[in-house]
Amino acid sequence: MAKTLSLPGRFFLLRHLNSYLYPRGWSRVWTRKTPAPPPFWNLPHPRLRSALGSSVSCCWAALSPGRMSVIDHVRDMAAAGLHSNVRLLSSLLLTMSNNNPELFSPSQKYQLLVYHADSLFHDKEYRNACLPSEIEVKYKMAECYTMLKLDKDAIAILDGIPSRQRTPKINMMLANLYKKAGQERPSVTSYKEVLRQCPLALDAILGIESFLPVAWGAEVASMTMNVIQTVPNLDWLSVWIKAYAFVHTGDNSRAINTICSLEKKSLLRDNVDLLGSLADLYFRAGDSKNSVLKFEQAQMLDPYLIKEGRLEDVENLGCRLFNISDQHAEPWVVSGCHSFYSKRYSRALYLGAKAIQLNSNSVQALLLKGAALRNMGRVQEAIIHFREAIRLAPCRLDCYEGLIECYLASNSIREAMVMANNVYKTLGANAQTLTLLATVCLEDPVTQEKAKTLLDKALAQRPDYVKAVVKKAELLSREQKYEDGIALLRNALANQSDCVLHRILGDFLVAVNEYQEAMDQYSIALSLDPNDQKSLEGMQKMEKEESPTDATQEEDVDDMEGSGEEGDLEGSDSEAAQWADQEQWFGMQ
């Protein structure tokens, strides 16, 4: 029977074994306070087994390789309270595991699933409520101040914690608060401190890249390079960092190409986060069809479906999201968008305000509320919301579009021109910025020729860009060049079908007395978007223009007996009642 060493003998043996093994690359993590580890014969080191032989039955030792696995990094971030970072990284790792089942062992995948689920739950954290240390109490106080919109008080509380005592989650909260307050330097410093402790904190990387991503990109890459080189299957991370640097600079085309290369050529194929980013980038680039396809591929529709006239899908999406959770901004934004495009602006305003209350950094909620305020005539309030959206997302063109529309609505053409020129210089000369600048130029008779030049440049870059085609058609309509407009619209509709383009083509065909084809175009427009009021008005106008001819023919047949005039009046009343019913049916106000 094997002999068992006494406790002092075990300590003596461990000290010598540790000095024996440490030069070979092993690190000592054992202390008196740690729990008893597995028996020594289960450890993989051959020199440990041969040194002890069979004379010792058990020894309290924990010896581990110096290199951490990616699961260890996830575990450390979860223990540090970096739940948003855990969610992002574990999502990518689970996608890799689904594409290559041999990448992780069953136990490792189980751990990833647990960490991922736990990070999703931790929007509301209860675990530490029973263990309130002084630092934890201050963290909870800061959370309370944040919920009360008292960010300055939250920063003051966290700033009072000495730097060496700040945990990663405290640094993460500080970084986000500084970012929200527009303080770049302390925010970046706090994000870096998070990365120093947890180099795979991807949310912290995104936070740093949101400030001057070109300047910070190389530094972020250097901070994570050691992990990329030592942890297997993380070669995609450097490409991921570069992709989101392009996102934050507003370089949509390069961002799309880089993320597509990740999504197609690596184990990250069909990752929901990457598909969502691609969908958002396609929308920013004005490609709403590919945007919808990517959202559907991710099994998650989006408010941008409204751009395709699919209000029923948006309404269903809102109901599904509310069934999941009403404590996030997204369900309220989706329902608000449905109300907005149904012309229920007061309801859209309420839903947008509710979304902002849940997440004051939700750019989409700010855009929704700003648009509702603008359409309700409260332009100055709308301007405040669009400016806040620009502060949070300075590379999103739709934020600038909303603000410029407010300036134009209040006849502030000079302010609109200054803003459009700034966007043109900041985001570069692409089809979208050229069209936005041309839109402002069209408001001033002096700059009509400049608008024409800008639109020609935009269409040279993207002949299918709907907004540029619409503005060019508007310019041709002013000049009464209807044949040129018809040719432009037919060319644009050759490879796509868009409600607005079909409706404008119908208007141009009416101008050249092509009534039957105009009616066909209005019908196509309404089939694409049954709520398009202008197409309904176009059809109604055509019917009104045709009715006097019918009345004249009726007078000739009845030999001027007066029945034609009465019939015309009755027909007008009947027609008005008919369109009143249709307006009620289509929800128009």
UniProtKB/TrEMBL annotation:
Pathway connected to this protein: Protein modification; protein ubiquitination
Biased composition, class Basic and acidic residues, residue ranges: 537-547
Gene3D superfamilies assigned to the protein according to its UniProt record, in alphabetical order: Tetratricopeptide repeat domain
GO biological process, one term: protein ubiquitination
Chain positions of TPR repeats: 363-396, 499-532
Protein keywords: TPR repeat
PANTHER family attached to this UniProt entry: ANAPHASE-PROMOTING COMPLEX SUBUNIT 7, CELL DIVISION CYCLE 16,23,27
Protein name: Anaphase promoting complex subunit 7
